[in-house]
Amino acid sequence: MFSHLHELDKDSPAEWLSDLPCVSYECTTSLEVAFLSENIFDLIGVHRESFLGNDLLWEQSVPPEDKSLFRDGIARLKRERATSLVHRLIDADGLPLWVCNRMQMVELDSVETVRGCILPLGRNRTLFGLDPEVGSQFAHKLANQFQIQGMILSSLRRSFPDVKDIELLQQTLDRAVEFARAFSQYNQFPNRVDGLRISDVLEPVLSSYKAAFKQTRIALKEKLDPALKQLTLCGDAFFLDLAFRHLFQNALEAIDTNGEVAVVGSAKSQGRNCTVVIRIEDSGPGMKEAELKSAPTLYFSTKKNHDGVGLSLARRFVELHDGNLRVSSTWGKGTQVEIVMPVRRSDLSAKGGNSRL
Q1: What pLDDT digit, counting tens, does each position of 194-211 carry?
Q2: 218: helix, coil or strand?
Q3: Is 35 exposed, middle or buried (0-12, 13-18, 19+ CB in 10 A)?
């Protein structure tokens, strides 16, 4: 056989590699791609020529929240010579795809080389999430304990009405309940309904926040493509409603007064593939690089007395609809949150279409 996979390009069409149900690759230890099978296009909709001779397959296609996991895997590869990772790749439509990436370190012509294959697992994160039954039982048992503690505190308050520490205990208990509620929501999975229109979820949430923006003298700018009314998906209106509310609330709290929030909604079509892009921008203080990396993490917050659940829950709910939520921010200028989800146009035929891995 061949010592280098890229030699297949010279001596053989390598068609058999592209017929495999995985993407084969070979790259340097600095992750510059030397060989990539042609079926990378079937996986993420980008031609392999875009990735040859550079590290864009990893820097561009692996989402920021998976980068640290990927770097840890590369470091482990150098020690153990072989490793496997489960992470996401972002396709040409901006949507995430879960993959298993099996890598091994080999020596070719006295040069260490990373050789591997990428096996698609699917777009649904629920395959890798918490067991909903276990999470439900945990939340139920925790709620019982909180209820007992609340009854004890009520008794203590009646017996010692002037003790201020009792009120502090009550506040601590209330926050613990909120944490548990957030965990319970995070662990739920959507009850999908086919034919759900994006505009039927987004527009009522936006209307409900207009008064709050006006009260705090925040200018609200809307630019929603009329085509949104023709876009549907199989989804859970309650979960998407919560996702949008968390994001609008974050934008509202990011600005003290006299700021601006822009909401932009558009549709993108590529053949039969159609996605909706919702972008929410605020003119708040923005986030520093370290804060931006931790922003989507559950219970992380840059605000005092905030639980840090809104953005992480919004991302979770979007991912449960096979979508992707990206956050970008510039310190001193503001923050942008972009949601990309797969949708269908109501006038599209269900026939035809290109198959993917």
Answers
A1: 888 889 999 999 999 998
A2: coil
A3: buried
- Mean pLDDT, the chain, whole residue set: 79
On whether the CB atoms of residues 118 and 18 are closer than 8 A, the answer is no
Cβ neighbours of 175 (radius 10 Å): 12
Structural element, H or E, at residue 65: helix 64-80
The encoded tokens of residue 7 equal 């030699």
Say if CB 97 and CB 44 are below 8 A apart: yes
- Tokens 């069409």: give the residue: 13
Report residue 274 as tokens: 């159609």
For residue 258, the one-letter residue type is: N
User: What is the maximum alpha-carbon separation in the chain?
Assistant: 88
**Which range among 40-54, 261-275, 320-334, 339-353 shows the weakest confidence by mean pLDDT?**
339-353
Q: Which amino acid is at 141?
A: K
Q: How many CB atoms lie within 10 A of CB 223?
A: 10
Rounding to the nearest 10 degrees, give the CA dihedral for residues 54, 56, 62, 64: 110
Please report the pLDDT score of residue 188 as a whole number. 63
How far apart (Å, rounded) are the C-alpha atoms in residues 296 and 298? 6
Helices (H), 233-325: 237-254, 289-294, 310-319
